[in-house]
Fold this protein.
Amino acid sequence: MMYKYLILLILILFIWGFFIEPNLIIIKKYKTDFLKGQKIVFISDYHIAKYDRQRLRRIVNKINQLKPDIVLSGGDFIKGHNQNSSLKIEEQAKELARIKAPIITVLGNHDNWYDKYTIKQALENIGVKVLINTNTEVNNLYIAGIDDIKTGFPNVSAALENTDSPRILLTHSPDIYLDVKEDVDLILAGHVHGGQVKFPIIGSVICPSKYGTKFCGGDYKETKNRMIVTTGLGTSILNVRFLNPPEIIVIE
């Protein structure tokens, strides 16, 4: 009899982890003292699969409901390592164009594997600002963004050139954190997905970072700079999440 209950429990956990939790979206809020009344939404790691347009539509609708002043993005629009497994970036751009706020993004490792310049052009065609070791100013706030540390050539100094406080540094991966010597008001990162699967008490056990699970998601202040790492919106390798639902970050 116990085996029947165990099999039922495994089946329930399987359905939850592979089919329910990956399609949830939670809102996580953080406070700062430099935004002067502005609201920023930070999102990353969409990983939109070929037949996954409806999930992207729900993400866009949720962002618009939050009424942000600025939307910042950590990249990885692409699912997998090639063009066959992902919704075309031009189709993704049509959905992202519905966001009712300025969008500024860096690109992730999956984007670079796909073709960073094709993605950059498609996003810029709808007014998204794509930062690759460059910066921009919006609403009296400097946003700097670096190339992906794994598949590109990040240059923090170049990205921050001619900027002043308040300024935010966008990076796809948190692995750059301890190497940032310049003063910034906030670093925003994604990539790690919170490990996708967390266990009660012990948390995540695997994280795609050279620091292991050290920067796997949350709020960090281990240098003079503060870093917030999102656990992201999508999945990679296995379409599974457990005790680690997709999230949108709100910073006020």
User: Anything to note?
Assistant: The first strand starts at residue 26 and ends at 30. Residues 236 and 245 are 14 Å apart (CA to CA).
